[in-house]
Specification:
49% helix; binds inosine; TIM Barrel; 4-stranded parallel β-sheet; nucleotide metabolism; 362 residues; binds zinc ion; 17 helices; alpha/beta
């Protein structure tokens, strides 16, 4: 008899997370403690439960720009080494307790230099935190590997510097590079120099595209910039039409994305909050999965969305009647798409993911 598909059991299943923002995943209580310790006095509440509610409500804004405003408070307390180490360590422990076995967690070093840290000191603090958190998780019986993605902000002009930092730290658990922030008005080609540098260095990168702006953003990310993966990518459905009988017709860009197995880092709850999707049940992940795009499931911002990998998967099970096979498919897709050497990806699939799901199906 397969195990029941409820949150408690889904939590025990091995999961892989490719799209999670460090500054979008703080524990509310930690945010309050750090604000007090660092003299940050602009928090909307100093009660953990109320603060969590404030984030979830404010992020439920119908626009990416307003959603992003909530990050002022998290970034506001992440300006010194100790705070960064603590947030990164708790991130690794929280993901591990949620059953995540491999994660690539992103953050923008340039946002954490307000109190004088150098960019590389930000990176080192976060990596030290991930390592400490992973050790603590292992001691608590959960094995996880957490690696970093360095993000550059698309409205700013530091992408080349951040890309160079990602390459400099590539052998110390920095898996790759990303750009994030408001999408409309800030096309990825603004950062072509960074992407060309990364390609010359044989380095990996993902680009937030097709979340708050449509197909041109996805097209530029892939065909001008050369992205390995797409952050969100939900708007690729604009290039798919469905006939009355249910058959799908793919435009050239959608066909390219599917043919080349371009990984889509989908974040259902976040997309509903920013109005990139109407509801979980109407989220494009349903049709994209049916059409066998390389879909992965992610959290984006656990604090703002009040979610976890477990809750996102449980919500999809509820909306689309997914089975354990489907959850394993998402997980293997994500592992295949990780910025990790091929042999290590295979080992995690064969030694951790497949046996984990086999046990739940038995
Ligand atoms: O869904 C998203 N789309 C675009 N940008 C985002 C999203 N979530 C977070 N960030 C931005 O990425 C920065 C670094 O982690 C965050 O500070 C936030 O501004
Ligand atoms: Zn994101």
């Amino acid at each position: 008899m397969p195990s029941p598909l409820d949150p408690d059991t889904i939590r025990t299943a091995p999961k892989v997370l490719l799209h999670d923002h460090l500054d979008g995943g703080l524990r509310p209580a930690t945010l309050i403690e750090l604000a007090e310790a660092t003299g940050y006095d602009a928090l909307p509440s100093t009660d953990a439960r109320e603060l969590a509610r404030w984030f979830a409500e404010s992020a439920y804004s119908g626009s990416l720009e307003r959603y992003l405003e909530t990050f002022t408070h998290t970034v506001g307390v992440m300006q010194d080494r100790d705070s960064l180490v603590r947030v990164a360590s708790e991130c690794a422990q929280d993901l591990a307790a949620d059953g995540v076995v491999y994660a690539e967690v992103r953050f923008a070093p340039e946002l954490h230099v307000e109190h004088g840290l150098a960019l590389h000191e930000v990176v080192e603090a976060v990596l030290d935190g991930f390592a400490a958190g992973s050790r603590a998780a292992e001691a608590a019986g959960h094995r996880i590997r957490v690696r970093a993605l360095l993000t550059a902000m698309r409205h700013a002009a530091r992408s080349r510097e951040i890309a160079e930092l990602a390459v400099a730290y590539r052998d110390r658990e920095v898996a790759g590079f990303d750009i994030a922030g408001a999408e409309a008005g800030f096309p990825p080609t603004r950062h072509l120099d960074a992407f060309e540098f990364l390609r010359r260095e044989n380095a990996h990168f993902t680009i937030h595209a097709g979340e708050a702006f449509g197909l041109p953003s996805i097209w530029e990310a892939l065909q001008w910039c050369g992205a390995d993966r797409l952050g969100h990518g939900v708007r690729i459905v604009d290039d798919i039409s469905l006939a009355f009988d249910g058959t799908a017709h793919l435009g050239r860009l959608a066909e390219y994305v599917r043919d080349k197995r371009i990984p889509l880092e989908m974040c259902p709850t976040s997309n509903v909050q920013t109005a990139a999707a109407e509801s979980i049940a109407k989220h494009p992940i349903g049709i994209l999965k049916d059409l066998r795009f390389r879909v992965t499931v992610n959290t984006d911002n656990r604090l703002m969305s009040g979610c976890s990998m477990t809750s996102e998967m449980a919500a999809l099970v509820e909306a689309f009647d997914y089975t354990w096979d489907d959850l394993q498919w998402f997980t293997v897709n994500a592992m295949k798409s990780a910025f990790l050497p091929f042999d290590q990806r295979l080992r995690l699939i064969d030694d951790v993911i497949k046996p984990g799901y086999a046990a739940l199906l038995a």
